[in-house]
Write a structure and sequence with these properties.
single chain, seven-stranded mixed sheet, 19 helices
Length: about 575
């Protein structure tokens, strides 16, 4: 407490003021949080939920950084004189939805907050008092992602069923519980980070609860390739250290009934776990390796992934280059890009091929991409949805059309990269996936917007449903590492290429204070990127304004639409 800016009297007054508020924490609970902040000050403090206590946290943290995420504009106005950073966020999950495996961080939460070494994280919002109110699924999930080994996490209202269940799912076991009605739970960041990394050996093995999963986990495919010596469709699967999931995916494709002749092309992006060797010699499977690519195919921003060394054989190139290289090695007239952690159903390729041909082959076609954790859930395959932009930073999300089943394929703003079917001629005519986009992230937005601007359409086929193994939940470990700098570059590059100048300018203004923004923006404005963008734009037959107008309902969450 040697910092002269610290005032014990100010903090004490704050404790008395806040603990007297109806519905707030007890003075003992506030004191536990404040003492933790004081012990670590100057500290990085992240708070979900603004209130009368915000000023107290700032007073206890002189010289430190306090960031507050709040959904109510009135509370943001109430703390506008407090020396902290605040962000207006939106929660899409209501309390009655219960605990969910696949949730996202709150919309409006800056991506780079996940990189900050937080000392203290406090979850006291959203309120979640009733079933129709936003629950704390997203704030607790985001807290788990933001947590570091040295963090300490506090969760208010821990006595409530949803909070306790979400904490069990996302944070693990509490190390301390203070009070009862309400109660405050304390979590150790080291334990949370371990859960988030997914160290459990069992976490990658979903239960065998559905015939598709039984096929995918079988020792060998149930059936072999259908058709002639020359495939009509090439199923292109980029992969990097997918473990047993690559085998499940390949076996599921081979086992599915099909009237279409096809091949499987696997692009091995410097895998080291032996997963590709398991499927390498299966009938109809062709493996292309990243180490077989010429040196000039390695992107100039390329670097070893994970613990790989600098040798050529350890050089991964990312899924964008991988998809393009897989397409180059394919021999089919149609290309189906597929993630390496999915399960497919009978005749999925037949439906995709028929839809593509009905629309003159100038389209990108997908279907319903469902969570593999929901295998066996009644009627889930009747839920119709498409893919769209979540915000004007080129991040994506699902757009739900409701429960009524459509009879024919319907147009959507974007086509997801996890399942993307197109004719080879169309793929080549639009230039494939842009290899200016780095590693992973934004790939589907880039090719979908390019497809639209060049006169193509993106379609969802209601007769196609695949089950996807989502990795962005706390106990599952992604097989690759992607820096936020690279994904942020992708967003800026995509919006520079496809949106209006007004949209891009406002995007840059929104992100102006983000870390590394100037350096990333300078990257985007390198001559080679500007020339590539100019060359693309010269071929466009549609505009961003037309895109925003045509898909107004699907883009209604976008702060910026027509420029």
């Amino acid at each position: 407490m040697s910092n002269p800016a610290f005032s014990a009297a100010t903090v004490a007054n704050g404790l008395q003021r806040c603990s007297s508020k109806s519905g707030g924490m007890l003075v003992l609970q506030y004191a536990r949080i404040v003492l933790e902040i004081i012990a670590r000050a100057p500290a990085n403090v992240l708070v979900f939920g603004a209130g009368a206590d915000t000023a107290m946290y700032v007073d206890a943290n002189p010289g430190g950084r306090t960031v507050v995420l709040e959904r109510h504009a009135k509370w943001l106005d109430a703390i506008q004189d407090v020396s902290c950073e605040s962000f207006h966020v939106h929660y899409s999950t209501v309390r009655s939805a219960g605990v969910r495996d696949h949730v996202t961080a709150p919309e409006g939460m800056p991506w780079n907050l996940l990189d900050v070494p937080w000392d203290v994280i406090i979850v006291d919002g959203p309120e979640g008092h009733t079933d129709t109110m936003p629950g704390r699924q997203q704030s607790l999930f985001a807290a788990s992602l933001a947590s570091k080994n040295s963090s300490v996490l506090f969760v208010h209202d821990y006595q409530r069923d949803l909070e306790r269940q979400c904490c069990d799912r996302y944070l693990g076991s509490a190390v301390e519980e203070i009070g009862q009605q309400p109660s405050l739970a304390v979590f150790d960041g080291a334990t949370v980070s371990l859960r988030t990394a997914g160290d459990s050996a069992e976490s990658d093995v979903p239960p065998k609860q559905h015939p598709l999963m039984e096929v995918a986990c079988a020792g060998k495919p149930v059936s072999r390739l259908q058709g002639s010596s020359r495939p009509v469709v090439s199923v292109v699967i980029p992969t990097h250290d997918e473990g047993d999931w690559l085998k499940r995916t390949v076996h599921s494709v081979l086992a599915a009934k099909s009237d279409t002749a096809y091949e499987i092309v696997i692009f091995d992006d410097a895998s080291t776990d032996g997963s590709v060797d398991v499927v390498r010699n299966l009938d109809g499977v062709n493996v292309v390796s990243a180490c077989e690519l010429p040196v000039e195919r390695i992107p100039d921003w390329g670097k070893p992934r994970g613990d790989h060394d600098e040798s050529r054989t350890g050089q991964a190139v990312g899924c964008i280059v991988g998809r393009n290289a897989g397409a180059e090695a394919a021999s089919g007239d149609y290309l189906c890009f597929l993630d390496s952690h999915v399960l497919v159903q009978d005749h999925w390729l037949d439906h995709l091929l028929e839809t593509s041909r009905k629309h003159g082959d100038r389209c990108l076609v997908s279907g319903n991409i469902l969570n593999v954790d929901n295998l066996g859930e009644p009627n889930i395959e009747s839920k119709q949805f498409g893919y769209t932009l979540r915000d004007w930073g080129a991040r994506t999300t699902w757009h739900y059309y409701g429960l009524g089943r459509f009879e024919t394929a319907y147009e959507t703003p974007l086509c997801p990269g996890g399942l993307m079917f197109t004719s080879r001629r169309h793929f080549d005519s639009i230039g494939g996936f842009s290899e200016h986009v780095r590693w992973w992230g934004g790939t589907d937005a880039e090719i979908s917007l390019k497809n639209y601007m060049l006169g193509g359409v993106a379609l969802a086929d209601p007769l196609v449903a695949i089950y996807h193994y989502y990795k962005n939940i706390t106990d599952r470990k992604p097989s690759f590492k992607v820096s936020y700098r690279d994904t942020f570059f992708n967003r800026l590059f995509i919006m520079k290429a496809f949106s209006s100048q007004a949209v891009f300018d406002r995007l840059c203004g929104h992100y102006a204070l983000q870390a590394k923004m100037d350096a990333i923006l300078a990257d985007v404005h390198q001559q080679k990127y500007l020339q590539a963008i100019e060359a693309m734009q010269a071929t466009f037959v549609r505009t961003w304004d037309q895109f925003a107008t045509q898909f107004a309902s699907q883009l209604k969450q976008l702060p910026i639409q027509a420029g």
